[in-house]
Amino acid sequence: MLGIESRTARITWTVALVVLLLCLVYLVRRTLFIFVLALLFAHLLSPLVNLLDRVLPASRTRTRTPALALAYVILVALVVLVATQIGSRVVEQANALAKRFPDMVASWQQPPSAGGAPRSFEDEMMEKVRVEVAKQSSTLISALPQAGLKIISVASDLIYVVIIPILGFFFLKDGRVMSQHVLDLFEAGPRRALLNDVLADVHLLLSHYMRALMVLSLATFTAYSIFFSIMGVPYGILLAALACVLEFIPMIGPLTANLTIILVAAVAGSHVLAILIFLVAYRMLQDYVISPHLMQQGVELHPLLVLFGVFAGAEVAGIAGSFLSVPVLALVRILYVRIRKARLAAPLVAGPVAQ
């Protein structure tokens, strides 16, 4: 028809549909990100729901709803406990640091007289940091009001703190039914088997990734807060909470948290060298021992690929892109591995039939 081959027409329509789908995803990217967060939240809470579902008395008509309700009650209780015991101290220390930071920077910029005595390695390092902070002091001080405005803008989106658990509830309640409906779109055969394997791998990936992130964040907060308390570092709970939150952003988040901790410790006059040694030692322990052990199932990505994903995700979608870069790359890897295995297995299946 019109001199166009049917194969060319199918390829053209496929490309047009893919482009249209990408445009639609871009238009609804904010809503899509909320649903992705809800899906990740559901995978994070699923072990508790499964445990409660096994513990509660069984019956013929019982659903997962009682286990879900009890899991959410426990979650709300934990959030209230953390907010009252830790959140109030974090807010108090953040307000104190915001008020005192300009004066601390101004006084810290004046180096003490050495009096001709030999200078230690820590003194040399502090002098270099002092020079750099002196150059960027105006930027640092002016950034505080901007950070406050950023916090206000984030606080205006607190409605999503309610929406995400609600969406996660439906994912937990009807996730298996949703997966079955997707599988029912395909007839029994290789494609359905491939899709079933991909969905199982994605579920395993998201479950291990979110649990690993939560464990790493809690371990970071615990280790940092204990060390800062022993060393008497000012604003220790605030700095530990900052490192805990930024742990969710691969590589770039921990680096930013550590630089911030060193800067605040230097300006406050704490033991910068001891803090630097602790941060480097803990980073090596977490990156080479704890993190590989927790993420050994599903997230098998080279560090260079992770760095590329983090920077590319930041350019495309900011902090949200950096946060989702690792699971997206791991998902692409799953698709590649499963499709490759299916293609390699196809000749083996078709071989005996041809004979």
Quick rundown:
The chain has 355 residues and is an all-alpha fold. Helix content is 84%, strand content 0%.
Give Rg in angstroms: 26 Å
Structural class: mainly alpha
Q: Tell how many strands the DSSP assignment holds.
A: 0
Query: N-to-C terminal Cα separation, in Å?
Result: 39 Å
In terms of per-residue confidence, which ranges show pLDDT below 50 for 5 or more consecutive residues?
A: 151-156
Q: Estimate percent helicity.
A: over 70%
Order of helices and strands: HHHHHHHHHHH
- The fraction of residues in strands falls at under 5%
Give your account of this protein's structure.
- The chain is built from 11 helices and no strands.
- Residues 151-156 have low confidence and may be disordered.
- The protein has helices at residues 6-27, 29-55, 65-108, 121-135, 137-155, 159-184, 190-231, 236-246, 252-268, 272-294, 303-354.
- The chain has one domain.
- Helix 7 (190-231) runs antiparallel to helix 11 and helix 8 runs antiparallel to helix 9 (252-268).
- 19% of the residues are buried.
- The protein is globular, with a radius of gyration of 26 Å.
- It has 355 residues and is mainly α.
- 84% of the residues lie in helices and 0% in strands.
- The protein starts with 5 loop residues before the first helix and ends with a helix.
Provide key terms for this protein:
355 residues; mainly alpha; 11 helices; 84% helix; globular
